[in-house]
Amino acid sequence: MPDPICPLCHRPIPHDVKQSVHHLVPKLKGGKGGPTVLLHHICHREIHATLTEAELARDFATPEALRAHPRLAKFIAWVARRPPGFQSKIPGRMRKR
């Protein structure tokens, strides 16, 4: 069975790489039980380092909307040049609030 594809960066997600389930509408904003997507852990962390829960719920509840965000688009261009199993130190705290 082929590896799933990350809907943010469009790279395969190998089974031995850290991965995360992202609620397209944050649970705190009514997304509990709503649609989710499987992402690389590094991609998931970048989403939450970039956007608040309110912004995610209001304007970025689809992979297409996330990819269109200027900062995430820059991150995607950067991470797309890395192998699918690439992991990096990621910020421990949210950078934009």
Automatic annotation (TrEMBL):
Q: Which UniProt keywords apply?
A: Endonuclease, Hydrolase, Nuclease
Task: Enumerate the GO terms in the molecular function aspect.
Answer: endonuclease activity
**PANTHER family according to UniProt:** HNH DOMAIN-CONTAINING PROTEIN, TUDOR DOMAIN-CONTAINING PROTEIN
Tell me the protein's name: HNH endonuclease
